[in-house]
Task: structure prediction
Amino acid sequence: MNILKKFVIKDLSLNKKRTIVTIIGIMLSSALICAVAGMVTSFQKTLVEYAKQEYGDFHTIIYDIQKEDLGKIKQNEEIEKVLEYEYKGYSNLEASKNEYKPYICLVGMEKELLNNLKLVEGRLPENEDEIVISKHIKTNGGIDLKIGETIKLEVSERISDGYKLNQRTIFTEDKEEILNKIYDKEYKIVGIIERPSTFIEDRQSPGYTVVTLDNKEKTNTSIFIKFKDSKDYKEKTKTILADIENEYECDYNISLLRWEGAALSDSTMSMLYSVSGVVIVIIIVSSIFVIKNSFSISITEKIKQYGILSSIGATSKQIKKNVLFEGFVLGIIGIPLGVICGMFAVFVLIHLMNYILAEALDGIKFMYSVPYLPILITILFSTITIYFSSIFSARKAAKTSPIEAIRNNDEIKIKSKKLKGSKLIKTIFKVGGDISYKNLKRNKRKYRTTVISLVVSITIFISLSSFIDFGFKMANEYYKNKKFNFALYGGPEKNRDTEELFNQIAKSEKINDYSIHKTIQVSVLPEYLSDFGKEYFQDSEDIEERVIAIGEKQFNDFVKQIGEDPKKYENKGILLDNFTYFKDEKKINGNLYNIENNKLTLNLLDENYEKTNKIFDIQIEKRTEEAPMGLEESTGIIISDKMMEKFDYKVNRMYIMSNDTTGLREELSSLKISNPAYEKIGYSDYEEAQRSEQAMVLVVSIFLYGFIAVISLIGVTNIFNTITTNMNLRQKEFAMLKSIGMTQNEFDRMIRLESIFYGIKSLVIGIPLGCIGSYFIYKAFSEGMEMAYKLPITAIIIATLFVFLIIGLIMKYSLNKINKQNIIDTIRNENI
Amino acid sequence: MGILEVKNLKKSYGKGENKVNAVDDISFSVNEGEFVAIIGASGSGKSTLLHLLGGVDRPTSGTVKIKGTDIYKLKSDNLAIFRRRNIGIIYQFYNLIPILNVEENIALPCELDGKNVDSRKMDDLLQTLKLKDRKKHLPNELSGGQQQRVSIGRAIINNPAIMLADEPTGNLDSKASEEIISYLKLSNQKYNQTVIVITHDEKIAKEADRVITIDDGKIISDERNI
Result:
């Protein structure tokens, strides 16, 4: 090894701590880049796998190809794999409850395709006499076919106006269709599968798919094509179709193509890429900061040695090479360690996410992909970072003239004008404070690096922790005031039916409490507006309001709750009136209506919210600001069910407090199977929604806190290097101060003050920046809901403590080192 | 023609009223094998002059020719190469690389030049400088005199055209000083080495062939000892 390389190695191993801290800095930033890139590729892989699972592992599908063309297609060199299946024909399914799906459609598939079907029950067909049926024959068509039964299919062609129809042509009652029998055969049902992908059976396809094994040569094949490379899939498909004479229908597996990156116009993927791009840029910038900083420190420390080398004849090229070699050594240790840590972090995160989000994701599993690309990206970016950081310092080292370098006073070139201390500081903190304050000014550049590192960490911490805080609050607040955790929505048409269905459901044991809302829409006459109401509605005549009955028991409870006797209110209404709106960004709250006359005169509205001019009064004696179960509006007229009987009301909501929402969901689905009338009832499970939202926020906070932690750690390595070397460089000065009689206590105090100045300065800048950040985040969140802005006090306190702790610890560390040294040795250890 | 020729050399710091001429229009030449002492009060500009002669600083104007090469016409890299081959510098405070041992420090100029050190020569040098049993020691494990001997070794390992010494005994006691002087003298006589020493030390001045006195950046006397 040549002497200069030996020099670098010796220097690195002698300054073990600085070397280790620098390597940690490099490692952390590589790990962060690797983790971010790794997450992106893992997400992508997950989505690709999901698309393959859901839609199939192919890029293009071509329908109903004739035998002679198939051979030609198979010769295309771009194709990796072709899988064949055949629509054999239709058979009548008279009992089908779905009027648009009156058939069974028999499909023959080769073995490999069969294996891609998602089996719910039973097994796959093993010969040409066995079939599997799709689940939705039962859930959608209402026909209960069991495994083990045999079914006779009259396999026929669908013909209309002399044309043969296929699964892509919708069944309509307007056009007559004839079934032309080809053959009939008995099949044994051996299994039930999930509904096949839309490529085999579209939503509107007229036949329910049943599948049998068919390994024979087919007369009329549809094929799934997988290209070797999905890029330019459209052109490739066009080429294939252009080569054959007949025209065929084709379709693309867009979901898969999108995640594979072949159809990148999609916004989700490009957003994922651009967000991760931004994050990586932030990481790189902060890494360059750290690494450059630690290089320039290492160079400053060694600048004298470089001066000596140069004075005995080392060329600037040799010195540059030397510095770059140092970067190389640090990188070759730091980068691989970082890559390993980053990959491990991704691995842990993916598993954590699968664990936490198991319920919310509904069966999707995140996959861990060994991220070759991220590793390459990391190595590339980290190398670039180190190269630029070191070349910068190398230039500086090579540029300084040897004698200046030997004197090493470049770093402390000062002008007395700039060093005027503050009188205030001198009075408060005495000479020690004055010296430490001046010192910060003298070392402006280094001081700035330290302060900036701290400011970045503080700002990111405060704003991101508000982000998490608001996220959790949103997830909880939204559900907190709800007196229900489940809601049902009915179809709009036949109201009384819906009421009947709701009442049936209400019998479930899983329901503790419920409220069925019956409503009519009305318009309140403008003379009943309060001053507050007039200001809001201005001159509008359309003051729409709802009259709601909430069920007998609920009504009685509600009346009692507001301290009245239910009997009194059988023929009277209660006004819910607590209206809030924003005027010039300010929240204004008040009562909309004036009920001095103890009544409201209303104009009934029809279905289209047009006035019918049926005018009637409702007696109102009580105004409340408390809403009954399920009512989310801030105004409304609540009446008894008895009173509601007079009107042609609507029933479309039922609010439920359930002790087991999951069980209730299951009950609902079995009800739907037994009676299709329930099919039109929709539901929201708020408990589940809240759980998944919380899980989501939890995952996001793990990400964000992880990110904050690593960014802060990078900052800490930066600060550590700056402060310790700064202390080292000033050793002589310290020794001098001691030699002229500064006591140990005074000395310690001086150093402590210096750290306090660092801390204060960075907090003074960082906290307001963090608050601004958190305010912007609040703004973004508050679009969705009303929430007052709260200063992130906790985060500010944590940041403050953390800053002083970190600086204090580092200062203490370097003080210990300094205090161990003998004064005279330190002073004598100087040159020229 | 001398091995070193200095012509109208000037070095000034600051501007306007604050302008200080540390070296003010100095010209002289030194012949091969001469032992020259430069003396002067502190602040007279002698150290600056030596740095200019050694090519480690840059003059405001004027030329320095060593073996006929105008060193400040060289580009900085070429100057560095010229330095390691032709100039040996000894500093008052030794300026050894603290993390390299004695042998490595002495070998530095040679290694920088990409050459292997002739081990016989290294042995001979270590023997002469009485550093044989110290060759694996780091500089901070040596006394001042020993450190200075290492820097003498480093200065002459490449047989430079001239050897410059900046107060080489300034930091040493009288016994160590005598030793250092004897080594300088020895190299001057044994290898016919040209030596230029800046000094306060009367003894060195007396040993020299020639004494140049400097004050205020100017040569005020240039005498030969008889």
In short: Residues 1-56+264-409 of chain A form one domain. The longest strand of chain A covers residues 178-193. Chain A is about 55% helix and 20% strand. Chain A has a mean pLDDT of 79.
